[in-house]
Amino acid sequence: MFNLSNKNTIRVLALIAFTAAGPAIAHTGHHASGFAAGLAHPFSGLDHLLAMLAVGLWAAQNRRPATWLLPLAFPVAMAAGAAAGVAGWTMAGLEFGIAGSVAMLGLLVAGAVTLPAWAGAALVSGFAAMHGLAHGNELPGGVSPFAYGAGFLLATALLHVAGLLIATAAGKGMHYRVVRFIGAGMTAAGAYLLTAA
């Protein structure tokens, strides 16, 4: 358990998650290729960034096995969704679903909601599959899907870990309320994204 008696700890952990975030344009193309493009994609827009960070935050609010199962289920389901997207599958209202996932995950963090591990994993997997489908649909031309996929899976894992570390560092005191407040902010961001979807 991290000690937040030093106020800089939470700032450093938040910096890990947010400094790599670029403009909120998650679906406007890529200028890098392969692994670098996949690594950059989750940081290129608020929808992917916030959803992946929220999974880590929510996982830390839950008990084992959900603490490790949620961050594991998300990339597995996202990879399956990405494979479907590369194969040409698509889904009506995909952007709306992705924005909704941000709002819902934010609500779960804000409410510190706990579910049975299987239910949480199923919910997270559904959201992840949509994110993966978007990744697969947007695979830049001439880029290896395996290199691209490895990049975005690594970025996803880093965001999950950042969320876990932030929530774990917050503990159960006043700083824990800050995590719930972050969840409320994520819900508001998701609601905004829903209006733009």
Report on the structure:
With 197 residues, the chain is an all-alpha fold. 72% of the residues lie in helices and 0% in strands. It has eight helices and no strands. The chain has helices at residues 8-18, 34-40, 46-61, 66-86, 94-110, 117-137, 145-170, 174-196. The longest helix has 26 residues, at 145-170. It is globular. 45% of the residues are buried. Mean pLDDT is 82; it is low at 1-6 and 8-32.
What are the SSEs and their pairings?
Blueprint: H1 8-18, H2 34-40, H3 46-61, H4 66-86, H5 94-110, H6 117-137, H7 145-170, H8 174-196
Helix pairs in contact: 1-7, 2-7, 3-4, 3-5, 3-7, 3-8, 4-6, 4-7, 5-6, 5-8, 7-8
In what range is the share of β-strand residues?
under 5%
Q: Identify low-pLDDT runs.
A: 1-6, 8-32
DSSP summary: helix tally: 8
Order of helices and strands: HHHHHHHH
Gross morphology is: globular
Fraction of residues in helices? over 70%
Radius of gyration: 16 Å
Profile the largest sheet.
none
Which class best fits the helix and strand makeup? mainly alpha
How many β-strands, per DSSP?
0
Q: Distance between termini?
A: 39 Å
List keywords for this structure.
197 residues; mainly alpha; 8 helices
Summed up:
This protein is mostly helical.
